[in-house]
Input
Amino acid sequence: MNIRQTKLEDIDFVMKIYDYARDFMAGHGNGNQWINGYPSVELITSEIEKGHSYVCEDDEGEIVGTFCYIEGIDHTYLHIYDGEWLNDEPYAVIHRMASNGKQKGISSECLKWSFSKCHNIRIDTHRDNIVMQNILKKHGFVPCGIIFIDNGTERLAFQKVINE
Output
C-alpha cells in the first residue's frame, strides 16, 4: 500500500470513493452522516491545495482509499462534552477516511501511516457509524466524549496516544 498526497488530477477518483462510502454507510444504518453532497468537490479541492488530502494506492497504483490528515488544532475539538480528551499535547486529526470497497484493511493502513507521523491522534464519527466506531475501538482508540461540528451536529470523539 502506498499513501501519498492527493493531486488535483485525482479528484474524480476521490469523489467516486466518497460516493461509494455514502452508499455503504447508508446501507449499514448510517444514512445521515455524509448528506447533501458532502464532502463537496470544493472542500476536497481545498484540502488538496492545503496538502491535507491523501490517497491510498494498491500495488497496481489504483487509488483505493482516501482520507484527510491535519496536524494541529481542530477548532471543532476545542470544546468536548460528556468527557475529556486524553491529553492536551499537540495532536493530528483524521477526517473523511473512506475506501472504494475493493480491498480490505484500508483504514488500518491509514491509521498506521498517520501514527508514523504523529503519536497523538484525534478522530470523530457519527453516532450511527457503527462500522467506524468498531474500527476505532479495534485499533485502540478511546471514546472521549462528544464534539459538535460546524453544522451543529454532534459527533462521538475518540483519541489514541502511542507512548514512545
Observations:
- The first strand starts at residue 2 and ends at 5.
